[in-house]
Every structure is written in structure tokens, then in C-alpha cells.
Amino acid sequence: MSAEQVAREHHRRRRRLVDRLVTVSRQLWARVDPDAIARSWTTQLADLVPVATAAQYAAAITADTYLDAVLAAQGVTPAPRATVVAAALAGVASDGRPLASLLYQPAVTALTAIGDGVDTRRALAGGYAALETAVRTQVADAGRVADVTAMAVRGVDDYVRMVVGTTCGRCVVLAGRRYKLSEAFDRHPCCDCVHVPAAEDTVDAIATNPRAWFDSLSAEEQDRQFTKAGAAAIRLGADISQVVNARRGAYGLTPAGARITADEARMLRGGRDRGQLATRAVYGRQVYTTTEGITTRGLAGVRLGARERGVKDGGRYREARTPRLMPESILAAAGDDQAEALRLLKRFGYIR
Questions:
Q1: Is the Cβ–Cβ distance between 289 and 250 less than 8 Å?
Q2: Mean pLDDT, range 112-117, rounded to an integer
Q3: Residue ranges of E strands in the chain
Q4: Burial class of residue 224 in the structure, from the number of CB atoms within 10 Å of its CB (0-12 exposed, 13-18 middle, 19+ buried)
Q5: Is the per-residue pLDDT at 258 higher than 80?
Q6: What φ, ψ does residue 92 adopt, rounded to 5°?
Q7: What CA–CA distance (Å, rounded) separates 8 from 157?
Q8: Lateral strand order in the sheet of 158-162
């Protein structure tokens, strides 16, 4: 098998572990008594914590085998100086506290929401969303730490980030980047990305090339991962990184590709709708804007005149006075005129 195939199979095994743990977690959360959330969830934790600990151990114990296989696929004969102690990564949360303490938090989430006036059904839905996020992330993190440890004892200095499974736009733009082992592996809750030890450059593989990944998706999946407007802009030639990164500074944004329902997201915000992408008034029109990339260091900032007419608003660099439109407003303004859409995408820094 190729290094990519080895990495994919490694991920599939771990994903099956996670999916089984999620099933157990869902069944146990369903037993929570709405009238005694804290007490009843504490009872269920007695069953969940050992299962979650075992899943962490199972994810970590495969690291040495994975490293040997993925390096062999690249023509490298590994010479490990030690082996990973998987038990040290089990029963502990990513932040160092006992796993049981972290897994109690969904009850706190639900009770806090109820205290803020959210109805019990939605509060419990939010509690379960927090629980699923926690168990998925903790097993994945145990596996990742084990992989990094296995790399270190084999003298591997670099890794390539590879996207697998169902991913999000933020991860896709990082796909294929090469990192030093000492650099932290940035991930969000429920992140599916994996390390591929980089004895050779694999950035041309479909799993590590952002544009190739985008093109491999159906139109429906492109819309889900990048939003409809974002995906449409990319199909017109917009740079994926510009489209995705623009959402960091978008007014009133909830990121694309969120893995909780709208009701759960609203519950986690205490019943408020803030966080949704919102319009603002610009020159008498309601449009979507972003502050991302509008300084003299950003492509959009340069094209919008930050160097010539920019202002300093407490930051280090001058910012463009002209608001940067989001793809949603650009495509709405262009209508069916593709040439106009391309002109605006270029003007606002989405096309180089």
C-alpha cells in the first residue's frame, strides 16, 4: 500500500472505535432523568468512563504499528528507540484533567442552559452535542499524541497534514502542508485530520491537495463544507484559502461545516440567534462583509486601497476604508452576470 492508503486505513480503524463509543454515549445519555440530570448522569458515567478509557487506549496502541507501516511504504526502514506507552494516554483528557471530569461537563452544559431559560428538551440536546464532541475529540487526541510520540522515537522530523473522512473548509486549506514535529497539530473538536510522517513529499495526493479535494466532492458536499456562496465562488476560480479565511472576520458569523444542528447551536448560545452570518448597512445597502485580509498585508487590503488610503484603527497595519464583501453579497450583486462576478471576486481579493 502507498503511504496515503496506510494513513487512510489507520484513520478508518480509529474512526470505527470512535463511532462505537459514540453509540454507547448516546445510549447512556438517553437514560438521563430530565428531573435529576446531575445525579442520573453521574450514575451513567460509571459505565461510560471505562469504555471511553478503553477506546483511548485502543487508539493509542496502534501508533507504533502505523508508523512502521507508513514509513515502510515510503521506503524507510524505521529504527525505533522506544515504544509508545498507550496506557499513559488513556483515562486522561486533552487538557490533563481526569477523563471523568471532562465527561461530566455535558450535564453542566444542559443545566446551565436550563438556568438561562432554555426548555429541557433543547438543553438535553445541547448536552448530548457537547458529549459527542468530547468523546470524539478525546479518542482522536489520544491517537494523535501517540502518533507524534511514535514519530519522535523513530527520528521523524516532519509530517504532512492529510484530510480524511468528512472534513471542513478550515481543515481543507491546511491540507498538504508540511510541518516540523515540534509544531502543534491545530485541530478543532471532532477534527478528522491525521499526521502522515513525511519521509517524502506527498502534497500532490488528492487527500493533501485542497483544490483536488474540493473537485473530488459532489456539488452538494461542496456547498455543505464551504457554504453555497463560498463553493460557488471557488467553482468560479476563487482561492479556497481566501474564501475560507474570510469567514474568520465575517460579521456575526457561524462557521460553515458545523457539526451540530441549528437548534443545538442556538441552545449552546443560550437561546440567542447571534453567531449567524448577518448583514450590515454599507452605503445604504445591506451586505455581508468581513474584516479578514483588509490590511496592507492582505491581498484584499491592497486591492481595496489600504496602502494609499488606509487608516490605522488601533492595529499594527493600515486597513482599507472600503468594506470587503463576502462571496454571498458578491454573487448576489452580480446576479447571472459571470463576468461581473469574476470582476468583483478579484476586486475583493478572492481571485489572485
A1: yes
A2: 93
A3: 158-162, 178-180, 194-197, 280-282, 285-287, 289-290, 324-325
A4: middle
A5: no
A6: -125, 135
A7: 21
A8: 178-180, 158-162, 194-197
What cell does 301 get? 487590503
In sign, the C-alpha dihedral spanning 72, 197, 138, 244 is negative
Condensed to tens digits (0 to 9), the pLDDT of residues 224-247 reads 888 899 999 999 999 998 998 887
If one counts every other C-beta atom within 10 angstroms of the C-beta of residue 252, the result is 13
DSSP state of 264: H
Phi, psi (deg, nearest 5) at residue 309: -125, 15
CB 170 within 8 A of CB 188: yes
Model confidence at 257: pLDDT above 50: no
Question: Domain spans of the chain?
Answer: 3-210, 217-347
Strands 158-162 and 280-282: unpaired
Higher pLDDT, 159 or 270: 159
Q: Are 66 and 72 in contact (CB under 8 A)?
A: no
Q: In angstroms, rounded to a whole number, what is the distance separating the alpha carbons of residues 50 and 312? A: 55
Cell 460579521 belongs to 251
The rounded radius of gyration (Å) of the Cα atoms in the chain is: 23
pLDDT averaged over the chain?
84
User: Under a CB-based contact definition with an 8 Å cutoff, are residues 154 and 74 in contact?
Assistant: no
DSSP labels, 220-232? HHHHHHH-HHHHH
The residue-averaged pLDDT of 195-220 equals: 72
Tell me the β-bridge partners of 92: 98
DSSP SS3 for 198: coil
Is the distance from CB of 226 to CB of 243 less than 8 angstroms? Answer: yes
C-alpha cell at 225: 463544507
Coil, helix or strand at residue 287? strand
Joined together, the cell numbers standing for residue 85 give 506507552
pLDDT > 90: percent of the chain: 44
pLDDT score of 277: 64
Of the pLDDT bands very low, low, confident and very high (cuts 50, 70, 90), residue 255 is very low
Mean pLDDT across 64-72: 91
Report the alpha-carbon distance of residue 9 to residue 205 in Å, rounded: 16
pTM for the whole structure: 0.72
